[in-house]
Specification:
Shape of chain A: globular
Shape of chain B: globular
Structural class of chain B: alpha+beta
CATH architecture of the largest domain in chain A: Roll
Radius of gyration of chain B: 19 Å
Structural class of chain A: alpha+beta
Distance between the termini of chain B: 50 Å
Strand content of chain A: 15-25%
CATH class of the largest domain in chain A: Alpha Beta
Number of domains of chain A: 2
Largest sheet of chain B: 5 strands, antiparallel
Oligomer: heterodimer
Bound molecules: flavin-adenine dinucleotide, FE2/S2 (inorganic) cluster
Distance between the termini of chain A: 54 Å
CATH superfamily of the largest domain in chain A: Beta-grasp domain
Strand order of the largest sheet of chain A: 2-1-5-3-4
Largest interface: A-B, 29 and 29 residues
CATH class of the largest domain in chain B: Alpha Beta
Number of domains of chain B: 3
Helix content of chain B: 25-40%
CATH topology of the largest domain in chain A: Ubiquitin-like (UB roll)
Strand content of chain B: 25-35%
CATH topology of the largest domain in chain B: Uridine Diphospho-n-acetylenolpyruvylglucosamine Reductase, domain 3
Chain lengths: 164, 287
């Protein structure tokens, strides 16, 4: 089948490429754009390791055709750090609070938490757990992930208040 | 896990989508959120050679009230349903059920139209729509028609919708103010389809049940509208005898398969428990 010309904005940069419409977004990101931050865990829409931000929503990029994301805005874990290169509050908090062990789930987890905090800047522990229920972690038991997200929320809120 | 090849189309109107369906016949499939279709295509259980993506058809989005009906555009996502103020006020069972579907990522993509059109007995919205007496608007080359949710499902993945029709809207008679509703879903973990689930909608006046409807998810090859079970509640004070009868009548129409969610008789048993809990909660929510 013939390839199609796809264009999207990934982590703030316009990118173009040729791909079969059936190519999964995760394969396009990893293999054509060399963005290997988002991982492939299950490839069956369950684990969330492949989570990226697509037009302002968290999606499992193993369950999106590249053709669907033609023209879209995509953010991967590679685009989460601050503009000056320092770590984002979530990245910092995951490190501080032991929010990862093997790190396999972490890019998806942080990308998801990033969107969660945009929608709900002050989530309760329960809201955090519900909000990350599409992301599986085999190592941490989630305890420290929840702690890290809560700490990042506090940090981001304090920075926002200081700026006002 | 690579889906078969296809040619991709992104029409900007319902007519454009219908024209593509007409042209390509059973080689074409509509794509909404893709969260049922893409998994099936990865397993090669579906191998369409034309994909008609509905995402650019703006008229298929949104939730509104039109006369005595709530109207939900087919492309409205489960996430949008979950956060809708209008539905929270007028028909809270819909956001309640949406919150029990999958996980945030799936709900941002999955649409309510795809959920009801799909025909998978595991989908949760069909039973909700049967309990509410909703109608699905289908638009095809010869115009539009409405199909009652209670008549829509024929067998797993077989529905009343024709190959060249697009489901554009779900139209729900606005439930009476003060109605009580509940959806009870037993699942093994978050993101799982139901072992069994029940939707119950009641109106109660000075302690007497004046109307009732019940529908069941994932205990047969289609959602089940449990008419006799609901009938057993009407005119009663929802006491133990009436509820026992309703539970028994609901259990009687189930025909689940044995699978990873449990043996068939267990799933029937769970369906009964879901009906019992949903009646109790709907009663509490009424008034
Ligand atoms: C991990 C996971 C867990 C899930 N758990 C649940 C769950 O617990 N409960 C539940 O209900 N669902 C569940 N789902 C399914 C999810 O809700 C789907 O999003 C939904 O079933 C289909 O909606 P969609 O928009 O993604 O449709 P698509 O996948 O795009 O389409 C599904 C089918 O409907 C047809 N279709 C779509 N839109 C239309 C239309 N407007 N007119 C005519 N035909 C149309 C398509 O051609 C296709 O055949 C789960 C999915 C995943 C990946
Ligand atoms: S790899 Fe996409 S959800 Fe697991
Ligand atoms: S840190 Fe290992 S899977 Fe989460
Ligand atoms: S880590 Fe998989 S079985 Fe032990
Ligand atoms: S697997 Fe880490 S303590 Fe058990």
């Amino acid at each position: 089948m013939s390839k199609m010309h796809v264009k999207m904005n990934v982590n703030g940069a316009e990118v173009e490429g040729l791909a079969e419409p059936r190519t999964l977004l995760i394969h396009f990101l990893r293999e054509q754009l060399s963005l290997t931050g988002p991982h492939i865990g299950c490839e069956t829409s369950h684990c969330g390791a492949c989570t990226v931000d697509l037009n302002g929503k968290s999606v499992k990029s193993c369950t999106v055709f590249v053709a669907q994301s033609n023209g879209a805005e995509v953010t991967t874990i590679e685009g989460i750090a601050n503009a000056d290169g320092t770590l984002h509050a979530l990245q910092e908090a995951f490190r501080e609070h032991h929010g990862l062990q093997c790190g396999f789930c972490t890019p998806g987890m942080i990308t998801r938490a990033y969107r969660l905090l945009q929608e709900n800047p002050n989530p309760s522990e329960e809201e955090i757990r519900y909000g990350i229920s599409g992301n599986l972690c085999r190592c941490t038991g989630y305890q420290n992930i929840v702690k890290a997200i809560r700490a990042a929320a506090d940090e981001l809120n304090a920075t926002r208040e200081a700026a006002q | 896990m690579i889906p078969g090849s296809f040619e991709y189309h992104r029409p900007e109107s319902v007519d454009g989508a219908i024209a593509l369906l007409n042209e390509h016949g059973d080689e074409a499939r509509l794509l909404a959120g893709g969260h049922s279709l893409i998994p099936m295509m990865k397993l090669r259980m579906a191998v369409p050679s034309h994909i008609v993506d509905l995402q650019a058809i703006d008229s298929l989005h949104g939730i509104s009230e039109d006369g005595g009906e709530l109207v939900i555009g087919a492309l409205t996502t489960q996430h949008e349903v979950l956060i809708s103020d209008l539905l929270a006020r007028k028909c809270p069972i819909i956001p309640e059920a949406a919150a029990l579907i999958a996980d945030p990522q799936v709900r941002y993509c999955g649409t309510i139209g795809g959920n009801v059109a799909n025909g998978d007995p595991g989908n949760d919205m069909p039973a909700i729509m049967q309990a509410l007496g909703a109608r699905f608007r289908a638009v095809g080359p010869n115009g539009s028609r409405d199909i009652a949710a209670r008549d829509y499902y024929e067998a797993a993945y077989f529905t009343e919708l024709e190959e060249n029709e697009v489901l554009t809207q779900i139209r729900i008679p606005t439930p009476a103010a003060g109605h009580g509703a509940a959806y009870e879903k037993q699942k093994r973990k978050i993101g799982d389809y139901a072992t069994a689930a029940a939707a119950v909608i009641l109106t109660v006046e000075s302690g007497r049940c004046t109307s009732a409807s019940i529908a069941l998810t994932n205990v047969a090859s289609t959602p089940l509208y449990a008419e006799a079970a609901a009938g057993a509640l009407v005119g009663t004070d929802l006491g133990a005898d009436a509820v026992d009868t309703a539970v028994r009548l609901a259990e009687e129409i189930t025909e689940p398969t044995s699978d990873g969610r449990g043996p068939a008789d267990f799933r029937t048993h769970v369906a009964g428990i879901m009906v019992r809990r949903a009646i109790a909660r709907a009663q509490k929510n009424a008034g």
